[in-house]
Design goal:
By secondary structure, the protein is α/β, with parallel strands linked by helices. The protein is 40% helix and 13% strand. Among the domains are: 305 residues, Thiamin diphosphate (ThDP)-binding fold, Pyr/PP domains (Rossmann fold, 3-Layer(aba) Sandwich); 124 residues, Rossmann fold. α19 links the parallel β13 and β14.
């Protein structure tokens, strides 16, 4: 094919391909095949349909784009550069996958302006996109008026075979179909190749029929390599379907244009190699040096800058009209966009004295959620079909359902993995919404990938986890988390909080809501706990604090979390009566404690006091750093057992008598 015979659109598509090819070749690492095959659909989408402003990547009413097949990230980086985003220049393309680059090996929302969500773990991106679309639907239902459509944007996704194989995509897309999210449009890059080779060795289902069964509108573009009009018509048809999400199956050739590696696994995850790059250049008529983009191609792509500025200006004029007509709603809308919390949002959080009746911390959590909800209209969330166990229903609102998107109770069904990923999308919509989701603590393992990405993506999701220990009882070892807390505490940028009573629960919610750049996971009990003298909401933010103390330097420090703090308090009272000097430290959050200055940490856990006893109904893994040189722990280092909760706790040594015995052994 000679260059002279290529249309401008063909040149634009090849520019995307060769920026990807050259970047991967220079890095000697990456995935060129997807950008080469998906370039036509991406070009049509970005050039003809998407509304965005390259000079203001955070413009609220932009269409959201998610590259769920994040390994093909050079497709997105090429588009960001070509359309004029300041965040990605040609030097950044050349530094693909290098130290300090804003073009990392998978798209990172916190690294690269124009990237909405972090993708790479397959299936997460499409699930995030469901959350983005839910956020748009909710805000549109709340703020749009018959004469003023303020919230009006689409969520577009490119996903691949791998995304469709991962279970998380099925969970999220099933819910999206149920909810009828008409502004969610996914383009499925149907190229039949994964790392192991042809997908027919493991994946032969009819994806289109599956999505039809989910309740999606489904189309098939049979020639995604060259039939731009068919892609255009399919996207336009999808936009006309307002009561269903849309899947467009676009059949492509991975590595399109490569004479020897196209349609093979060899082009999926490795550079083409010098000879094959040259052969591909010749085959596609691209007689240009690496990273060289024709001026007419760049000029065409850069029209997006003026289009985006015009679209944003029109929307700003609409916002001005909205302000004049609906001042109160406009003020709330703009406050949320700024990320400002409303005045007095935490004023109604409950507080307690030891005389108040003790309750399970899951019930305190319920009280906190319903104290926050009327004052915090951005709070939205729900449970994985455990609403009446997690106690997470907002009594001031109805259920978020098809046609009832203004409501704030999200019904996720039994879909923990999808639930977490969807909440990441809601949090990363950048509209001020504060999503929470709930399940039993042990099932955090079902959503661990999403929780990890919350932390990595700086998504301020609030995780409400109940039934936090062996004390849940009869359901037995499958439901009793013994290692879960330790594994969650290992995730960077995740705050794990295990409150000991009602006051600490209120404090946990204050921390969680205020944390908009990091997720917070709270672990609550099923069983009732007393409200402790010295229990403090404000001190939760410090991670650990002195709950009760002695005169002078302690002989022993008892450290507890959650339901075990009350055991420490009772044991300390008995030891004090015997003349021992004992301090009790409540440590609801190891992460927050580690973030305090050295002086504060030393004041709570003096290095001179080496006899310390940690009491937590979980594995001892990770607690060694707090035990001291002569310390010990009442821990569980095996799976639990099925019996009434009190019996299980007693059999595993979670009694005042056993804490006393361990303490006395330390004291000699």
């Amino acid at each position: 094919m000679a260059v002279a015979t290529q249309s401008l659109e063909e040149l634009c598509i090849n520019a995307i391909r060769f920026l990807a090819i050259d970047a991967v070749e220079k890095a000697k690492s990456g995935h060129p095949g997807l950008p080469m095959g998906a370039a036509p659909m991406a070009f049509v989408l970005w050039d003809r349909f998407m509304r965005f402003n390259p000079k203001n990547p955070q413009w609220f009413n932009r269409d959201r784009f998610v590259l769920s097949a994040g390994h093909g990230c050079m497709l997105q980086y090429a588009l960001l550069y070509l359309t004029g985003y300041d965040s990605v220049g040609l030097d950044d393309i050349k530094n693909f996958r290098q130290w300090g680059s804003v073009t990392p090996g998978h798209p990172e929302n916190f690294e690269t302006a124009g990237v909405e969500v972090t993708t790479g773990p397959l299936g997460q991106g499409i699930a995030n996109a469901v959350g983005l679309a839910m956020a748009e639907a909710h805000l549109a239902a709340r703020f749009n008026k018959p004469d003023c459509t303020l919230v009006d944007h689409y969520t577009y996704v490119i996903l691949g075979d791998g995304c469709n194989m991962e279970g998380v995509s099925g969970e999220a897309c099933s819910l999206a179909g149920h909810l009828g999210l008409g502004k969610l449009i996914a383009l499925y890059d149907d190229n039949h190749i994964s790392i192991d080779g042809s997908t027919d060795i493991a994946f032969t289902e009819d994806v289109a029929k599956r999505f039809e069964a989910y309740g999606w509108h489904v189309q098939h573009v049979e020639n995604g390599n060259t039939d731009l009009d068919a892609i255009d018509k399919a996207i336009e048809a999808a936009k006309q379907v307002t009561d269903k999400p849309s899947l467009i199956k676009v059949t492509t050739t991975i590595g399109y244009g490569s004479p020897n590696k196209a349609d093979t696994a060899g082009v999926h995850g490795a550079a083409l190699g010098t000879d094959e790059v040259a052969a591909t250049r010749e085959n596609l008529g691209w007689n240009r040096d690496p990273f060289d983009v024709p001026e007419d191609v760049l000029s065409h792509f850069r029209k997006a800058v003026d289009r985006g500025a015009e679209a944003e200006q029109e929307w700003n004029q609409l916002l001005d009209t909205y302000r004049s007509k609906y001042a109160s709603d406009a003020a709330e809308f703009e406050r949320m966009l700024r990320g400002d919390l409303p005045q007095g949002w935490d004023a109604d959080l409950p507080s307690f004295t030891p005389d108040d009746k003790g309750m399970a911390t899951r019930k305190h959590s319920q009280a906190c959620l319903n104290a926050l909800a009327p004052n915090l209209p951005e709070l939205i969330g729900g449970s994985a079909d455990l609403t009446h166990s997690n106690l997470t229903e907002l009594k001031c609102s109805g259920n978020f359902q098809k046609g009832q998107y203004e409501n704030r109770n999200l019904r996720f069904g039994v879909r923990e993995h999808g639930m977490g990923a969807i909440c990441n999308g809601i949090a990363l919509h950048n509209s001020g919404l504060i999503p929470y989701c709930a399940t039993f603590l042990v099932f955090a393992d079902y959503m661990r990938a999403a929780i990890r990405l919350s932390a990595l993506s700086e998504a301020g999701v609030v995780y409400v986890m109940t039934h936090d220990s062996i004390a849940l009882g009869e359901d037995g070892p499958t439901h009793q988390p013994v290692e879960t807390l330790a594994s969650l505490r290992a995730i960077p940028n995740l705050v794990v909080i295990r409150p000991a009573d009602g006051n600490e629960t209120s404090g946990a919610y204050k921390v969680a809501v205020a944390n908009r750049k990091r997720p917070t996971l709270m672990a609550f009990t099923r069983q009732g706990l007393p409200n402790l003298a010295g229990g403090s909401a404000d001190n939760v933010a410090k991670g650990a604090y002195i709950l009760s103390d002695c005169e002078g330097t302690p002989d022993l420090i008892l450290i507890g979390t959650g339901s075990e703090v009350s055991l420490c308090v009772e044991a300390a009272e008995k030891l004090t009566a015997e003349g021992k000097k004992v301090r009790v430290v409540s440590m609801p959050s190891c992460e927050l404690f580690e973030e305090q200055d050295e002086a504060y940490r030393e004041s709570v856990l003096p290095s001179a006091v080496t006899k310390r006893l940690v009491v937590e109904a979980a594995t001892r893994f990770g607690w060694e750093r707090y035990m001291g040189a002569e310390g010990d722990m009442v821990s569980i280092d095996r799976f639990g057992a099925s019996a009434p909760g009190g019996t299980v706790m007693e059999k595993f040594g979670y009694t005042v008598d056993n804490v006393l015995a361990k303490a006395k052994a330390l004291l000699g």
